[in-house]
Write a structure and sequence with these properties.
Elements: E1 5-11, E2 24-25, H1 41-45, E3 54-61, E4 67-73, H2 80-94, H3 125-128, E5 131-132, H4 133-146, H5 156-166, H6 173-188, E6 200-206, E7 224-228, H7 238-251, H8 255-274, E8 277-278, E9 287-290, H9 298-301, E10 314-315
Parallel strand pairs: 1-3, 2-10, 6-9
Antiparallel strand pairs: 3-4, 5-8, 6-7
Helix pairs in contact: 5-6, 6-7
Keywords: Transferase
Pfam families: Transferase
GO molecular function: acyltransferase activity, transferring groups other than amino-acyl groups
Length: about 325
């Protein structure tokens, strides 16, 4: 087994950590880059046996005494929930505390190809439209030439009001926020564009705990899948959009549907790897991808005992993603 790579740096140039940074950094203007020792994804894809799956970089700002922990985690190890649980455990060990339940579970379930269902393929465009590695990397890097990242901030009070307008207890705050962003794009950008008017939401869903035979709560993996909603009854209605998103997520909790989806996706992903291709994250007509960290309190769960003194930053987004 390869050890976790850990780098320590003392920074004497930066007086203090800048507080004006956006939580989601822009890829082509990544101010976080000097503080991260990035995992070399190309090497991993090329079957390197030496490239670590996790790299940590600890930087001390000498002038202010602040510390920055840069984490680069290969997605093949697990999703955001798995990473957060791992970092929370490190944070608790640092404080001489026991790790929180649930304990990590590493067992994998094998999926049988003969149980796949081809009628699910229209829900999996990101897999059925996978492309050559070089083409996909080129596409992702070209977004900076055609799109700009838009950063929005909402107060707790604004989110509560939005939640009430979108349907209150029948939807979640995340549903409400997603619906508001979709409604804004449909109203001011896509109203007269039949190819771009957003009519469906493709939500990245954590399926841990739906069934222990599929993925228990502590599963260390990419226990996520993309649930495509039905068409919105009214793509210019906040409540219609929010409630349609909520129905799709409720439907995703059906163990039978989940098993069939995962079995079908497993066959596609094995084929993608065998053919040396990559998942396609481009915008498909009339769809938007929702992949949220809203439910994860990174700053509080990975604070190493410095309560209410930590901030969290991340990187990467894409068009209508």
């Amino acid at each position: 087994d390869n050890p976790i790579t850990m780098t320590y740096v003392e920074n004497t140039d930066l007086a203090t950590w800048p507080t004006h940074l956006n939580i989601v950094a822009e890829v082509h203007e990544n101010l976080l880059d000097p503080f991260i020792d990035g995992v070399q994804i190309i090497k991993l894809i090329s079957d390197s046996q030496d490239e670590p799956l996790l790299r940590l970089k600890l930087t001390r700002l000498v002038q202010s005494g602040e510390w920055i922990l840069g984490v680069s985690w290969a997605h093949i190890v697990g999703d955001a929930a798995a990473l957060l649980h791992f970092l929370n455990t490190i944070s608790r060990f640092y404080q001489h505390l026991e790790p929180l339940d649930p304990l990590p579970v590493f067992e994998r379930r094998l999926w049988h190809e003969d149980e796949a269902n081809q009628t699910f393929l229209p829900m999996m465009k990101h897999l059925t439209h996978a492309g050559p590695l070089q083409e996909m990397f080129q596409r992702y890097s070209s977004w900076k030439d055609t799109h700009e990242q838009l950063n929005l901030r909402f107060s707790g009070e604004q989110l509560e009001k939005l939640h009430a307008l979108a349907g209150g207890h029948t939807v979640t705050i995340q549903d409400s926020l997603s619906a508001y962003l979709i409604l804004t794009l449909n109203t001011y950008c896509y109203r007269d564009d039949d190819q771009r008017l957003i009519q469906r939401a493709n939500t990245v869903v954590n399926f841990r705990g739906v069934s222990n035979s599929i993925a228990p709560v502590g599963h260390v993996s990419n226990a996520i899948f993309m649930m495509l909603s039905e068409n919105f009854d009214d793509p210019l209605s906040l409540q219609s959009i929010a409630k349609t998103i909520r129905r799709s997520i409720v439907r995703s909790r059906d163990p039978q549907l989940l098993e069939t989806w995962l079995t079908t996706a497993d066959g596609l992903m094995r084929k993608i790897v065998h053919e040396n291709r990559m998942v396609n994250w481009r915008q498909f007509p009339n769809e938007v991808i929702i992949n949220s960290n809203f439910r994860y309190d990174w700053a509080a769960l990975v604070d190493f005992g410095y309560t209410d003194k930590c901030r969290m930053y991340t990187i990467w987004t894409g068009p209508v993603y």
